[in-house]
Amino acid sequence: MSAHPMEPPAGGLIPRPERTPESLRLALARVAPHRLGEMETQKNEAFALAAEHNNLGPIRQWLTIWAGEVEIERRPDLAARRRNAEHAVHGLAKDDPAWRAAMDELLAVVNEAREATA
């Protein structure tokens, strides 16, 4: 075992985690620990909604969202594409055609990540 368990293994990418709350949390702790609070807040909201409505849909949705987020964070190519698109979205006027292209790129990144983890 590595002396630095929070670092990615040689070769860069950490393995894709299982689609369970704990596996996703552990993976996120390795690739984007600054997002753990956001993940936990959304998990609590999803579980509360699931209990309130006696429906597992919110938990399934949370798993889909966070499996995708971990996929983006663990893959430098997707993370860079998202950062670039977000930078463009925040720096352009909404009536600029490049703004729409940046929003399309953001959606493409999310879709690619979710398809990879489906």
Gyration radius, in Å:
16 Å
Count of runs of 4 or more consecutive helical residues: 5
- Count the beta strands: 0
Principal-axes geometry comes out as globular
End-to-end Cα distance, whole Å, is: 29 Å
The H/E string reads: HHHHH
What fraction of the residues are assigned to beta strands by DSSP?
Answer: under 5%
What structural category do the secondary elements indicate? Answer: mainly alpha
Helix content: over 70%
User: How confident is the prediction overall: mean pLDDT?
Assistant: 91
Runs in which pLDDT lies below 50 for 5 or more consecutive residues are 1-8
Taking the sheet with the most strands, its summary is: none
What attributes does this structure have?
71% helix; disordered N terminus; mainly alpha; 118 residues
Written description of the protein model:
This protein has 5 helices and no strands. It has 118 residues and is mainly α. Helix 1 (21-31) packs parallel to helix 3 (57-74) and helix 3 (57-74) crosses helix 5 (97-117). Residues 1-8 have low confidence and may be disordered.
Topology:
Blueprint (H helix, E strand, L loop, with lengths): L20 H11 L4 H18 L3 H18 L1 H16 L5 H21 L1
Helix pairs in contact: 1-2, 1-3, 2-3, 3-4, 3-5, 4-5
Summarize the structure.
By secondary structure, this protein is an all-alpha fold. The chain has helices at about 20-30, 35-55, 55-75, 75-90, 95-115. About 70% of the residues lie in helices and about 0% in strands.
